[in-house]
Write a structure and sequence with these properties.
By secondary structure, this protein is α/β, with parallel strands linked by helices. 39% of the residues lie in helices and 13% in strands. A hairpin with a 2-residue loop joins strand 11 and strand 12. Keywords: Hydrolase, Pyridine nucleotide biosynthesis, Pyridoxal phosphate.
Length: 398
């Protein structure tokens, strides 16, 4: 049914919902970095201002918190969890993961198992903490065939936290056997953390039978089209972890009582909350989630559209004669929602394409071509062939 919704999408009507972003003079193949926002996101930002003007301090209980509850339920559903699970919000996944890491004092000798392909924020934070004594086991990802087996071997008794991405940010590799990894973490008494950011709202993930034990973080900046400042952490409601990095929203309901000597944590998603935040991203998220529902685009439908588009990109790259430069998997189940192509001077390729009105991005020597559901096939073809042309030019001059 969801796949049918994707095939039956009225592309004209859908594109009309992005009037501020979609213009005739550019092609946005930035689907993995900054997707277009639907126009309802702009209206939501104005609504946030108007609610603040109308309600002042009362906005929190009368408008913001109810929206957060609704947004949280729908995000959990799109992640593949029960809509009643615990979820905390933050302006970035770094904020939320740092709060989780603060549950493991360095003096206790914690050990983290992770990969060499985690996104910059986690890699940087773990590297910095390692300077102060955090024990980190870095699992190399170059051999993708043996990655999971080697990762499982690294999860030994005494491990405090297991952290990995469900989709690797460099080339869209979808990590298999997530459920097996989670089960192994639980078996040795470690906290399992999955970074789902690079697949949220477009790549369904099989969490496995131990899914209730999972900590999962992601955000709305990429495939969810919610913009900045709306990230989240799903965690087991029964956890007794005590973040040392904790703000007053973590026990908001206790503010009117006497201050206790021991720091407490509120129910539900409060435990990993911070302090006062900009509520505008919550309004955007609420409006964009309604937008997805309005067009019948749940995660399976968006996945169907994405797979069709990435297959088209791969075919065009083959047609253009640069098949050997493709870094992303050609197996649907192992490919996320973009296609990465190796090129010398990838940054220069991006700059020249930008001058031609083709928007892509790069990481290291990889040019990332990111489609999105609002793109036409002609735009995808035009943009992909332009990428191939610039890569051939760069290869010839190197």
């Amino acid at each position: 049914m969801s796949d049918e919704a994707g095939r039956a999408l009225d592309l004209g009507a859908f594109r009309a919902a992005y009037g501020r972003f979609l213009t005739d003079d550019r092609v946005l193949l930035t689907g993995h970095s900054h997707q277009a926002w639907p126009d309802v996101a702009r209206a939501a930002m104005i609504e946030a201002f108007d609610d603040a003007a109308r309600l002042v301090d009362d906005k929190w209980y009368r408008a913001v918190f109810p929206k957060m509850e609704s947004v949280g339920r729908r995000i959990l559903g799109r992640l593949g969890f029960d809509e009643g699970d615990a979820i905390s919000f933050g302006k970035s996944t770094h904020e939320l993961v740092t709060r989780l890491l603060s549950c493991f004092p360095l003096a206790s000798g914690p050990r983290v198992v992770t990969t060499r392909s985690e996104f910059h924020s986690l890699h940087r934070q773990l590297s910095r903490l390692a300077e102060d004594g955090l024990r980190v086991t870095w699992v190399d990802t170059a051999d993708r065939e043996s990655l999971v087996d080697r990762f499982l071997e690294a999860i030994v008794p005494g491990t405090s936290l297991v952290a990995l991405s469900a989709v690797l940010f460099e080339d869209a590799f979808v990590v298999p056997r997530i459920g097996e990894i989670v089960a192994r973490a639980v078996e040795v008494g470690a906290v399992p953390l999955v970074d789902a950011y690079h697949g949220f709202n477009v790549v369904p993930i099989a969490w496995g039978p131990a899914k209730d034990t999972l900590f999962v973080t992601a955000g709305g900046y990429k495939y969810a089209q919610m913009g900045e400042g709306i990230c989240f952490l799903r965690f087991p409601a029964t956890t007794n972890l005590r973040p040392a990095d904790t703000g007053w929203f973590a026990d908001f309901s206790a503010l009117d009582g006497e201050r206790a000597e021991t720091v407490g944590y509120g129910p539900g998603g409060a435990r990993f909350s911070g302090a006062t935040f900009d509520a505008t991203p919550v309004y955007r998220a609420d409006a964009v989630l309604q937008h997805w529902d309005r067009f019948g685009l749940d995660v399976p439908a968006l996945r169907a559209i994405s797979l069709r588009q990435t297959r088209r990109i791969l075919a065009k790259l083959d047609e253009a004669g640069i098949a050997e430069h493709v870094a992303s998997s050609r197996v649907d189940e192992r490919r996320g929602a973009f296609v990465a192509v190796r090129s010398p001077g990838a940054g220069r390729v991006v700059d020249r394409l930008r001058a031609r009105g083709i928007f892509v991005d790069s990481r290291g020597d990889l040019v990332r071509i990111g489609p999105a559901p609002y793109l036409t096939d002609d735009e995808i073809d035009h943009g992909t062939l332009a990428v191939a042309e610039e890569i051939r030019r760069e290869v010839a001059s190197s």
